[in-house]
């Protein structure tokens, strides 16, 4: 955190300042770069001060990931409300991953295995998936199909495609064509 940001820290705002510093580290170097010591140093407090708000590094990362899921859900919701249905949601998924690679890796990393330990993260992740479920309901309509299976299929496809683009296996331009061809095209 730069000096100007550090001077804005006031007692009582430590938790959001720590989360902000963790997000900065995450954006630059990914989830493995975040440590309580470095986060505290960026904010200008002792490492032990972080324990007033977070039990450990994973707790801090879970709070950060929950913020990421809320932002991700907003992106999915906007795409869902558009005309492109699953295809638009797939592109929103890819764009979020490209714009936030550290956050994306954190959100879908090891913390997902322990969602029940972090209720805020569990709720935020469930909200994002509920948007996929709503889109699946809209796509399936009155047909006799398993809505949850359709949502999982779209999620799996979008996630895999986002990782392929993020890891530069396929170009983003090609991803749009793939989304249009395989994510059910326009639904509305």
Written overview of the protein:
With 188 residues, the chain is an all-alpha fold. The protein contains nine helices and no strands. The protein has helices spanning 3-6, 14-29, 36-43, 57-81, 85-99, 101-107, 119-140, 147-166, 172-182. The N and C termini lie far apart (45 Å). Mean pLDDT is 87; it is low at 1-7.
Keywords:
188 residues, mainly alpha, Arc Repressor Mutant, subunit A, Tetracycline Repressor, domain 2, 2 domains, 0% strand, disordered N terminus
Through-space gap between termini:
45 Å
Number of strands: 0
By secondary-structure content and strand pairing, the structural class works out as mainly alpha
Largest sheet, in brief, is: none
Mean residue pLDDT = 87
- Discrete helix count: 9
Number of domains: 2
CATH homologous superfamily heading of the largest domain: Tetracycline Repressor, domain 2
Please give the radius of gyration in angstroms.
18 Å
What sort of overall outline do the alpha carbons produce when their principal axes are compared?
A: elongated
Q: CATH fold name of the largest domain, please?
A: Tetracycline Repressor, domain 2
- CATH-level-2 architecture of the largest domain: Orthogonal Bundle
Order of helices and strands: HHHHHHHHH
Helicity, as a percent range: 55-70%
Which stretches are low in confidence, meaning pLDDT under 50 for 5 or more residues running?
A: 1-7
